């Protein structure tokens, strides 16, 4: 190397900003133990409590709360981390073949773990695939292949997914909901319909449990228990979630993949931040426009193309903000509590879903915690107990961090 040549820049294999963002996402999931929405019922006149209630619960159908951004953020971050993972494996000398096998194995494990966690409180295995891990797993192998392709291929794949999925729903002919329509057969209550009037016109193709994704589950997924000899009959998902949502969820992961490619690149920090922020604003505007003009409602539960853009826009803005604060301004210590959570996201996801919180709270009450809560009003007792539970969660993760115990799939 001549004196005038400069060495190639060393690209990072991990960004603390992504860990901090992932930590925020998992904290929002863990914070369900605070029961803020339940406590807010005791303070109907408080705008602060009502705001907390809205943003710690899911909207019933269309729209978006902070809580609704948990699953898309988790999916987005899988894509954002992939370019760094591929770079790390290539630096270790792994061939494409072995990386492909690892991706296939990871895809299978994610789907299987999702089914397992869905079945922890049932009498038999629940072969449904609408939970976060299964949705990511169903699309992960495709994401890996795209991660090894050029950015223009990733952009084309994103457009094909959004336009193709929109077209498939628009061409599907949903049943007409006349006065004699059997709502019970599709798992939709009159109360839901009263609060969320069915869409008309083009948007009616995205009504709850009267759309292409519901028809797919009703015709095909319902047969899995029968084929395996399970006695419990298939029931429609009460929330309207569907298996086919893994296709547009892949779109969310591709947005993350593009963001990760931007962050892994050689641009200046300012240019990376601007790219993410502008991209987020444009995605939000496009998603809101599709919803506003009735072309496609923004519905998380069936992961509509408009939702991919709206939630993806928020994910890009969050990524930009964390990148600016943590990696550019160097405020890692400020966000250290979130980074601890984000570096072991699979561990806390698993522990929460096997009722770690229930065990902690029962133990707290058993060993004198009940008396310690008596000085609080009834609505605030679950909030304080939830805060204690969150502190114990974090201490477990901190112990794992100090001892270099990281759960990976």
Write up this protein:
The protein is mainly α and 409 residues long. It has one domain (16-402). It is 62% helix and 0% strand. Helix 6 (132-147) packs across helix 11 (246-264), helix 11 packs parallel to helix 13 (305-328) and helix 16 packs across helix 17 (381-402). The longest helix has 24 residues, at 269-292. The protein is globular, with a radius of gyration of 23 Å. The protein starts with 15 loop residues before the first helix and ends in a 7-residue tail after the last helix. The relative contact order is 0.15.
Average pLDDT level: 89
> Could you tell me the number of beta strands?
0
Biggest pleated-sheet summary: none
The oligomeric state is single chain
Distance between the termini: 40 Å
H/E series, N to C?
A: HHHHHHHHHHHHHHHHH
- The figure for the number of domains is 1
Class from helix and strand fractions:
mainly alpha
**Count of helices?**
17
Percent range of helical residues? 55-70%
């Amino acid at each position: 190397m001549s004196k005038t040549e400069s060495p190639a820049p060393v690209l990072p294999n991990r960004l603390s900003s992504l860990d901090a963002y992932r930590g925020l996402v998992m904290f929002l999931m863990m914070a369900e133990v605070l029961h803020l929405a339940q406590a807010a019922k005791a303070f109907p006149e408080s705008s602060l409590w009502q705001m907390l209630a809205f943003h710690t619960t899911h909207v019933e159908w269309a729209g978006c709360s902070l809580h609704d951004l948990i699953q898309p953020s988790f999916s987005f971050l899988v894509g954002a981390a992939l370019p760094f993972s591929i770079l790390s494996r290539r630096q270790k000398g792994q061939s494409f073949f072995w990386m492909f096998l690892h991706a296939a194995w990871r895809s299978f494990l994610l789907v299987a773990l999702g089914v397992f966690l869905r079945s922890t409180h049932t009498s038999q295995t629940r072969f449904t695939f609408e939970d976060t891990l299964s949705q990511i797993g169903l699309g992960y192998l495709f994401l890996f292949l795209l991660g090894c392709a050029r950015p223009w291929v990733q952009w084309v794949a994103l457009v094909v997914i959004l336009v193709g999925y929109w077209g498939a729903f628009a061409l599907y002919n949903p049943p007409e909901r006349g006065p004699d329509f059997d709502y019970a057969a599709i798992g939709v209550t009159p109360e839901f319909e009263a609060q969320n009037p069915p869409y008309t016109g083009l948007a009616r193709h995205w009504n709850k449990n009267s759309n292409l994704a519901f028809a797919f589950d009703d015709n095909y997924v319902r047969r899995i228990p029968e084929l395996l000899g399970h006695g419990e009959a298939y029931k429609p998902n009460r929330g309207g979630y569907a298996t086919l949502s893994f296709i547009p969820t892949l779109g969310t992961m591709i947005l993350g993949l593009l963001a990760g490619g931007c962050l892994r690149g050689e641009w200046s920090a300012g240019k990376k931040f601007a790219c993410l922020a502008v991209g987020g604003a444009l995605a939000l505007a496009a998603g809101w426009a599709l919803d506003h003009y009735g072309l496609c409602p923004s519905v998380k539960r069936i992961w509509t193309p408009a939702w991919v853009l709206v939630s993806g826009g928020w994910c890009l803005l969050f990524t930009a903000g964390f990148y600016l604060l943590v990696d550019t301004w160097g405020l890692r210590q400020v966000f250290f509590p979130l980074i601890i959570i984000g570096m072991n996201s699979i561990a806390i996801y698993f522990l929460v879903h096997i009722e770690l919180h229930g065990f902690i709270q029962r133990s707290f009450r058993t060993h004198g915690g009940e008396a310690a809560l008596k000085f609080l009003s009834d609505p605030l007792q679950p909030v304080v107990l939830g805060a204690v539970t969150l502190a114990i969660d974090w201490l477990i993760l901190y112990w794992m961090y100090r001892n270099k115990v990281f759960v990976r799939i």
